[in-house]
Specification:
With about 350 residues, this protein is α+β, with helices and mostly antiparallel strands. The protein is built from seven helices and 20 strands. The chain has one domain: Endonuclease/exonuclease/phosphatase (Deoxyribonuclease I, Chain A).
Length: about 350
């Protein structure tokens, strides 16, 4: 049974991390093996405390939420703990995609003002058109890969004007003798209703599909993000073209690794119902690769550790332990759970 006092769990996790820091983050044996671990995490309104002159008024020290330095640094360390809870074999993920991050300063604080400073991460953030100024971002282990390039892809309407939504962060990496194209997304929310907002998500899906096609079929690529739609939704399955039955599809079809999950828990819970909005999608070439980088089958995982959950008193069971519950400050992690997959070399 989940403990009601999540801070006991979090404190225990933090203590374990601190005690084992000398082992966990200096443990190099697995760093140069074939495993390449990927994580995606919607970190729920991760704003700094500085006025950006965009729509961040809610998250300032003078706002009703009283978003101050104490809350900021507590959030920063909680995101580190969530990353630590996603560890495999005493190593944090090699590539971590994030969304709902306001500024590059937050990424730098995460990489250099937490225990992740031992990990040698680099970071990059998108430059999007979101009205609140929140962005997609990525951190990566520099000793394992070299970033060749990065771009911000800002979705547009049919007339060429920009949509007021988050940019797709596109990064290309060199890993040994192989390359990997990574896209980090945060599709338009369901605010105002799933049906009324459906058109905007379909437009972003079509925009992303065009971008994928422009790269050509012979690319090993990975798309990760909060799609605000399920793997079987029309936007994901039909417009983006991410299949959930890869064995029956063509080589150039995108593969949704979230189809590996058979449990009842999703990555996000709304009004008592779990949804699997946070997905990692790969190219058919990466799924079926016989040489170099390939996807490890059945490795998709929703990180549902007890510390990341709290009792769902409004409905039943548990829900993600977020920073906020409406306008009430909970001091948790995020209203989403992280998801991970593993790639390998051969």
């Amino acid at each position: 049974m989940l403990k009601k006092n999540n801070f006991i769990i979090v404190a225990g996790t933090a203590l374990l991390i601190i005690i084992t820091t000398g082992y966990m983050f200096d443990y190099k044996q697995d760093r140069h093996t074939n495993a390449l671990r990927i994580m995606f995490y919607n970190v729920e309104n991760f704003f700094d405390t500085i006025d950006s002159n965009l729509g961040d008024e809610e998250f300032l020290p003078v706002s009703p939420r009283k978003w101050n330095s104490y809350k900021y640094y507590r959030k920063l360390n909680n995101i580190f703990k969530a990353i630590a809870l996603s560890c495999n074999d005493m190593n944090t993920p090699d590539i971590i995609g994030l969304c709902e991050v306001e500024s590059v300063d937050i990424l730098l604080d995460l990489c250099y003002k937490t225990h992740l400073s031992h990990e040698g991460y680099g970071c990059v953030i998108s430059a999007g058109k979101d009205e609140r100024g929140i962005n997609t971002a990525l951190i990566y282990r520099k000793e394992k890969m070299c970033m060749i390039s990065s771009e911000s892809w800002c979705p547009t309407y049919n007339d060429g004007t920009y949509m007021a939504t988050r940019a797709v962060l596109y990064c290309r990496f060199k890993l040994r003798s192989d390359t990997l194209d990574v896209m980090v997304c945060h599709w338009p929310s369901r605010r105002g209703g799933a049906i009324s907002s459906d058109k905007r998500r379909k437009m972003v899906a079509a925009y992303l599909r065009d971008k994928v096609d422009s790269l050509g079929p012979e690319r090993k690529l990975l798309i990760m993000g909060d799609m605000n739609d399920e793997p079987y939704s029309e936007s994901v399955k039909d417009i983006l073209g991410a299949t959930m039955n890869p064995e029956n599809e063509m080589r150039d079809k995108l593969v949704n690794t979230a189809s590996d999950v058979n449990n009842e828990m999703g990555s996000y819970k709304y009004q008592g119902t779990w949804y699997n909005f946070d997905q990692i999608i790969i190219s058919g070439l990466l799924y079926r690769s016989c040489r170099g980088l390939y996807y490890k089958r059945q490795s998709y995982r929703i990180v549902g550790e007890d510390a990341l959950l709290t009792d769902d008193v409004s409905y039943k069971g548990y829900r993600p332990f977020g920073t906020w519950w409406g306008y009430n400050y909970e001091g948790g992690f995020s209203d989403h759970l992280p998801v991970t997959v593993e790639l390998n070399f051969r």
